[in-house]
Amino acid sequence: MPKSDPLSLTLKKYFGFDTFKGNQQAIMESLIAGYDTFVLMPTGGGKSLCYQLPSLLMEGTAIVISPLIALMKNQVDAMRNFGEDDGIAHFLNSSLNKAAIDRVKADILSGVTRLLYVAPESLTKEEYIDFLKSVKISFYAVDEAHCISEWGHDFRPEYRRIRPIINEIGPRPVIALTATATPKVQHDIQKNLGMLDAKVFKSSFNRPNLYYEIRPKTSQIDKEIIKYVKSMEGKSGIIYCLSRKKVEELAQLLVVNDIRALPYHAGMDSATRSANQDAFLYEKVDVIVATIAFGMGIDKPDVRFVIHYDMPKSLEGYYQETGRAGRDGGEGRCITFYAAKDLQKMEKFIQNKPVAEQEISKQLLLETASYAESSVCRRKSLLHYFGEVYADDNCGNCDNCLHPRQLVEAKNDLVDVLELISSLPARFKSGHIADILLGKNTADIRSYGHERHELFGSLSGQTERHVSALIRQAVIAGYLERDIEQYGLLKITPAGEQYLLHPTQFKIVEDIEFSDDSVSDNVKPGIGCAADHELYAMLKDLRKEVAKKAGLPPYVIFQEPSLEAMATTYPVTLDELAGIYGVGTGKAKRYGAEFVDLIRRHVEENEIERPEDMVVRTVANKSKVKIAIIHAIDRKIPLDEIAYSHGLDMSELLEEIEAIVNSGTRINIKYYLDELLDDDQQLEIIDYFMTSEKGNVDDAVKEFDDEYTPEEIRLMRIRFLSEMGY
Questions:
Q1: 707 three-state secondary structure
Q2: Across all residues in the chain, what is the average pLDDT?
Q3: Per-residue CA distances from 331 to 320, 323, 694 (Å)
Q4: Domains of the chain, earliest start first
Q5: pTM for the full model?
């Protein structure tokens, strides 16, 4: 089409671009021609332009239904910069007072406003519906359309009411846009919006410039993040956390370590939130630490890194949030810290949902865990999840491809998997299939009589990790298919049936093994995150000597992560030692002198230049919440009441109490334990911890053959460390 066409002229006049990206022009032509239009375009592909530009050419006001106030403000500001009249774009939401609402309505009725952003909640108000009935509407745009689907990563029930409201106001063409949607979610969107006949435009999900990496989440995560952010000095980055509390803590930690950072979450007042967002957009700060409330629609093209402190709840969420990086096509590094226990914790939060929602959420969490633990090319796994085939086996721009693991032949094992699935009269999830092959005689297996199947235990010589990886990679290869409608039940494909007739070589890579004390690949096994392995060994020997003199297990003196940190940052004074994770002032004074003497001698003898940039300054552990917990325990308030009063579950409260004890504060929770366990039981558990090498809670639960719950053991461990370690 020649450059003199209205679309190209408007593109140049208002937006300053000479050419369209990808499918943009075809999408706009479809909308202007009056067709319902479905747009699946990754973050950074230019979705917003697909409705902004047509709104300037079409008669009337375009209604953009958008889920976030932050997105509205950002896009309205952008549109006003393109035009000469501020009235060209407005939003209607709960942040406006009556005078502001009246001004918006006046601009719309006068024909000045071409774009009106409305929150779905606002659209349901009768006063707005009645007003919009009197307005000439050019089209409706449903942004972040995945919110319609229960299988989407940000399901919002109010999105389900959009179609009936559109019908009530007056039907016009609808354009639905999303950056992340599996085939199942795509169908849900079109069905719910009544646009199954829409013209569909799908762009590739592949973002070649983005580097994907999953790191084990260890006790050294804060240090890792600070070190990484400092290595990206002067570059913009986003750090996502699941909880508001962690957002505040991490932002504060970055600031005390001379990193320009601000927090952002929905619990902040709107003025502060907007100010922090603007500070990031206008580069007054380098890093924003945020919950997922930040980023939707934020048009900052030069975000150079996105860090996930916690693994997201779904791969859609992961893809969309990592998609904030490198929107200009430049460098974009996406680093995520993963621990299986984080996803297990998320599973607890969904227990009060309806059963169907629970099943959906569990399936999404399983897909997320599978992605994190897989050794397959990250890009290949992601694109497969979104229904796109990535032909190459090595993308050259993810951790798994840059550090490939050894391939193992699995032809015979794959045959067993395919034969088992094809022989069963009903479909089952991958976990059940794996249990049959591994020979697990569980109640679930027996309820179906599958312990009598001829393939029961056929892979009993393999690990659970191997079988899980095998099934997952068989899905990616197209031999198996997960029935999303049925919560991930497996079925064999025609390609799988052909493979059974003519089996060929099938090599797989084993999954990565993550554990609570996992370490990065570039660290020797068993040495944790310590940078100086020689010093680490010396510190372990010294700890053993000190423990022997004190008549205590070594872990009571200093735990492994504390020794690792000492062998990385070289603290040579008691003050520096007190800042090490799990030490605190109390332990530093009681046990620290010999340790700092040893470290100082080692530094001098080996002429080590201490990495000052790695000596992380810590924020005082005794936050308001911790102080309140200490005072409540002093007053002997039941722990469950303390948890409830601070909006914590019991596990989160115990994490806070463990941090208090590790930082050198002695507390007495015996009053609470006495309600749970008698003196003999408490002494039995204390005796165990006195002789245990590691003091691990899970090991203790097994040792007592489940006589005590993990929570009881954990509480006793807190009592033991508090009484014996100080």
A1: coil
A2: 84
A3: 17, 12, 42
A4: 6-202 (3.40.50.300), 210-337 (3.40.50.300), 374-522 (1.10.10.10), 533-614 (1.10.150.80), 624-724 (1.10.10.1390)
A5: 0.66
